[in-house]
Amino acid sequence: MTARVLVGVKRVIDYAVKIRVKPDNTGVVTDGVKHSMNPFCEIAVEEAVRLKEKKLVQEVVAVSCGPQQVQETIRTALAMGADRGIHVEVSGKDYDSLGPLQVSKILAALAKKEEASLIILGKQAIDDDCNQTGQMTAALLDWPQGTFASELVIEGDKVKVVREIDGGLETIKLNMPVVVTADLRLNTPRYATLPNIMKAKKKKIANMKPGDLGVDMTSRVEVLRVDEPPQRQAGVKVESVEDLVSKLKEAGRI
Amino acid sequence: LACYFVGRLLPRPWSSFQVALCPMSSRTVTNIATEQAVNTGPMFPPLQTYSEEETMMREAVKKYAQERIAPFVSKMDENSSMDTEVISSLFEQGLMGIEIGTEYGGTGSSFFSSILVIEELAKVDPSVAVLCDIQNTLINTLLMNLGTEEQKEKYLMSLATDMVGSFCLSEAGSGSDAFSLKTKAEKHKDYYIINGSKMWISNAEQAGIFLVMANADPSAGYRGITCFIVEQNTAGLQIGKKENKLGLRASSTCPLTFDNVQVHEKNILGKVGQGYKYAIGMLNGGRIGIAAQMLGLAQGCFDHAVPYTKQRVQFGKRIFDFQGMQHQIAHVATQLEAARLLTYNAARLKEAGRPFIKEACMAKYFASEVATLTTSKCIEWMGGVGFTKDYPIEKYYRDCKIGTIYEGTTNIQLTTMAKLIDQEYDS
């Protein structure tokens, strides 16, 4: 039985919030805005907890990188069934420039430290849509990766992953230890029931800094500008197919 | 403003405040206003300050209610019946045993958490909220406070996991004048025989146990009232046809008849003749639960109506932009805030073990009046569509009316408050 699963959870602006760009175009407004766990991370936690319930893994450890507030996100993972949490403190400028490269270095270091044999992450975060952390983590560890997973089965010391790709579904078999990233249809995350929220209070969250893991936090990426998407232009109504074709030709589309 | 933050002597929920009151990274004013974690600043946090666990619970219930209850609301109202799926999911989520200890399979949380849960449920369906409220604030509280070890073993776990409870006090001839109840309990050796009838009993169709107030010694007047635990399948207990109500239709409200119902004396809750005390004591807390229900109802209705006013355009502008509308909306929002503060403060007072009866009465009275005002206004703001069943507003309007009536009519609340005020000014 696999010992330990590491699950990464990211605190992002809640999906239902209307995003506004800051007046100085350096980013989006986050102050006073509702935040919650990235939906794909919820799916990752759910999958890990299900593996534990099936007794295929022994322990689920939830990890998050960021300032004090990410502890709420870790607490939610604990309420869903994770056993303990690790909060890697990143704040200020480091947090503003935190991206997949630094996070994957942190996760790789933690995976070694915690002797995890399975890392499950969301396929991407809904704020930056990078879709890189899982892949980078696997590369840094030199582990195989099963990304966009819609199904995950542990078979002995191997993992079977069904991936959602452009052409359809691809099934691959990977030797553990592996990194898997969760796609939408992997599962439907449970609600944290009230009793589990109460139990989560007693579960431990360890604190550490990137320095403790020997991770260099310098970013190789600089955000120059953030703009809202252009306003949607009004459309044009046409009366016939001929009209449609000629309008498309005019616009240089065909 | 009474300061409710009393140093070291604080019971549980407040102690989690003190731990959290440590210097944290600097935050902007908007953060402090909207973020719900406790942080630095004044030693006396505003009323809308919640522990981490309370915030998590509220979020969890909000999400659950939207996804698992909202789809059924309209149908349940039309059919006048509560969906069994909904009831079992309430148990699954741990919402029916909020204050019951974990050793009995409960959630092991606090009274304030119950209040938040009831409020969130009421935003979606006040009928579901009342089911949850009665279970938590009346049934569970009575058993936890008065039950013998044997009774707790027998019933608490079921109440937390799959059994609904019902509280039977009112009769056809005694509503506000509760203690003039006529249902009798005659003692025979080690059991009692109950004869009589009850009316307006909520949850009756779903209940597995009934807490029945019957008089074991009519010559002693109200000092004979005793609380009996009667199981649903007891011979002689008949549940009558449910009422066809204006609102809260999904909540079953039935008359009950007791025809020589035999109850063993070990099913007496507390002491013989003390039932009247228990009823009063527990209704004081229950009142805050109803306040929370009315508050949630009003807020849920408001939350549906305001977005409409921002979309609906007449005379070239959003109807929200008309000053007449703005003033009405702001007025209602103020009333809602006041109702919230009264309710939360009453709950915090109760948790702190401080006197709370007057404040509980105020909360229930005010919240039910605010619910009436809010729902009425919301229908007007929505115009014609507010009057149709295609929109959820009219249901809130119908549901709110019972708020000024049950669990102590507005007049009773006012009289109780006046008595307390009278005592306050005794020199």
UniProtKB/TrEMBL annotation, chain A:
Domain of life assignment: Eukaryota
Mitochondrion among keywords: yes
Locations listed in the record: Mitochondrion matrix
GO CC terms of this entry: electron transfer flavoprotein complex; mitochondrial matrix
Location (main, coarse): mitochondrion
Signal peptide annotation: none
Gene Ontology BP annotations: amino acid catabolic process; fatty acid beta-oxidation using acyl-CoA dehydrogenase
This protein's UniProt keywords: Electron transport, Mitochondrion, Transport
Ranges of residues in domain Electron transfer flavoprotein alpha/beta-subunit N-terminal: 25-217
Gene Ontology terms for molecular function: electron transfer activity
One Pfam family from the record: ETF
Protein role: Heterodimeric electron transfer flavoprotein that accepts electrons from several mitochondrial dehydrogenases, including acyl-CoA dehydrogenases, glutaryl-CoA and sarcosine dehydrogenase. It transfers the electrons to the main mitochondrial respiratory chain via ETF-ubiquinone oxidoreductase. Required for normal mitochondrial fatty acid oxidation and normal amino acid metabolism. ETFB binds an AMP molecule that probably has a purely structural role. The electron transfer flavoprotein serves as a specific electron acceptor for several dehydrogenases, including five acyl-CoA dehydrogenases, glutaryl-CoA and sarcosine dehydrogenase. It transfers the electrons to the main mitochondrial respiratory chain via ETF-ubiquinone oxidoreductase (ETF dehydrogenase).
Stated family: Belongs to the ETF beta-subunit/FixA family.
Quaternary structure and partners: Heterodimer composed of ETFA and ETFB. Identified in a complex that contains ETFA, ETFB and ETFRF1. Interacts with ACADM.
UniProt name for this protein: Electron transfer flavoprotein subunit beta
Species annotation: Electrophorus voltai
Organism lineage string: Eukaryota, Metazoa, Chordata, Craniata, Vertebrata
Automatic annotation (TrEMBL), chain B:
Annotated Acyl-CoA oxidase/dehydrogenase middle domain residues: 166-261
Record protein name field: Short/branched chain specific acyl-CoA dehydrogenase, mitochondrial
Subunit-structure text: Homotetramer.
Reaction(s) the record says it catalyses: (2S)-2-methylbutanoyl-CoA + oxidized [electron-transfer flavoprotein] + H(+) = (2E)-2-methylbut-2-enoyl-CoA + reduced [electron-transfer flavoprotein]; valproyl-CoA + oxidized [electron-transfer flavoprotein] + H(+) = (2E)-2-propylpent-2-enoyl-CoA + reduced [electron-transfer flavoprotein]; butanoyl-CoA + oxidized [electron-transfer flavoprotein] + H(+) = (2E)-butenoyl-CoA + reduced [electron-transfer flavoprotein]; (2R)-2-methylbutanoyl-CoA + oxidized [electron-transfer flavoprotein] + H(+) = ethylacryloyl-CoA + reduced [electron-transfer flavoprotein]
Domain of life: Eukaryota
SUPFAM superfamilies: Acyl-CoA dehydrogenase C-terminal domain-like, Acyl-CoA dehydrogenase NM domain-like
Domain (Acyl-CoA dehydrogenase/oxidase N-terminal) ranges: 51-161
Pathway: Amino-acid degradation; L-isoleucine degradation; Lipid metabolism; mitochondrial fatty acid beta-oxidation
Residues spanning the signal sequence: none
GO cellular component terms attached to this protein's record: mitochondrial matrix
CDD domains given in the database record: SCAD_SBCAD
GO molecular function: flavin adenine dinucleotide binding; short-chain 2-methyl fatty acyl-CoA dehydrogenase activity
Protein family according to the UniProt entry: Belongs to the acyl-CoA dehydrogenase family.
Keywords, alphabetical: Acetylation, FAD, Fatty acid metabolism, Flavoprotein, Lipid metabolism, Mitochondrion, Oxidoreductase, Phosphoprotein, Transit peptide
EC number: 1.3.8.5
Any Pfam family hit: Acyl-CoA_dh_M
Coiled-coil region(s): none
Cofactor(s) this protein cannot do without: FAD
Subcellular location as annotated: Mitochondrion matrix
Domain Acyl-CoA dehydrogenase/oxidase C-terminal, chain residue ranges per copy: 273-419
